[in-house]
Design goal:
Nucleoside triphosphate pyrophosphatase that hydrolyzes dTTP and UTP. May have a dual role in cell division arrest and in preventing the incorporation of modified nucleotides into cellular nucleic acids. InterPro entries: ITPase-like_fam, Maf-like. Belongs to the Maf family. YhdE subfamily. GO terms for molecular function: dTTP diphosphatase activity; UTP diphosphatase activity. It is found in: Cytoplasm. This protein is of the alpha/beta class. It has one domain: Maf protein, CATH 3.90.950.10. Helix content is 34%, strand content 26%. It is built from seven helices and seven strands. Strands 1, 2, 3, 4, 5, 6 and 7 form a seven-stranded mixed sheet that branches. Helix 3 crosses helix 4. The longest helix has 13 residues.
Length: 195
């Protein structure tokens, strides 16, 4: 049963991600999608969750003069953090293959930050999940990139796709976070906001 107070608010999801849209629908939330183009640059000294926190807040900035009293804006950003390096979205197959080679046989962190903004307050939370890939062969990496074209995903992979099914040995933390949204965290925070 959804919290009755949620019905009084307009939840605005500022994300073009079909995976995030699907999660919101599956959680039974009424929401609208609003998109704005944001230059996703961040200071080079930021590390790990600092990067995704910064970018989630930056995305909210674009909406700051547009929110009504009953609006809750949700912006988010996902970072794949590996050996002190952020693996962002791959621009092409060469970059994607390079990223997957780095992740092969190793643990990495998937960090998703979610920023909840109303006219009166802003809350930024993040979820960190540790993920371990098996040793991936060149053939497996190239097959995945050719058939799934994972250029819209941090770290150049989707855990819910073929590479996740055949390549991920262990996961420590929220699964939905790796897909792109820590759903339990989002739901609980929304409930708290409307109490």
């Amino acid at each position: 049963m959804l919290h009755k107070n949620l019905k009084e608010f307009t939840i605005i999801l500022a994300s073009g991600s079909p995976r995030r849209h699907q999660f919101f629908m599956e959680m039974g939330l009424d929401f609208e999608v609003r998109l704005k183009s944001v230059n996703e640059e961040y200071p080079s000294y930021l590390k790990g969750a600092e990067i995704s926190d910064y970018l989630a807040k930056l995305k909210a900035e674009a909406f700051k003069d547009e929110l009504n009293n009953k609006d809750i804006l949700i912006t988010s950003d996902t970072v794949v953090w590996h050996k002190n390096e952020s693996l962002a979205k791959a621009a092409n197959a060469i970059e994607a293959e390079d990223m997957l080679r780095k992740l092969s046989g190793n643990w990495h962190q998937v960090i998703t930050s979610v920023c909840f903004t109303t006219p009166n307050q802003q809350t930024v939370l993040n979820s960190i999940t540790k993920v371990k890939f098996k040793d991936l062969t060149t053939e497996e990496i190239q097959y995945y990139i050719k058939n799934f074209k994972p250029f819209d995903k941090a770290g150049a992979y989707g855990i819910q796709e073929w590479i996740g099914l055949i390549g991920i040995e262990e996961i420590n933390g929220s699964y939905t976070n790796v897909v792109g949204l820590p759903t339990t965290l989002v739901y609980e925070t929304l409930i708290n906001l409307v109490q």
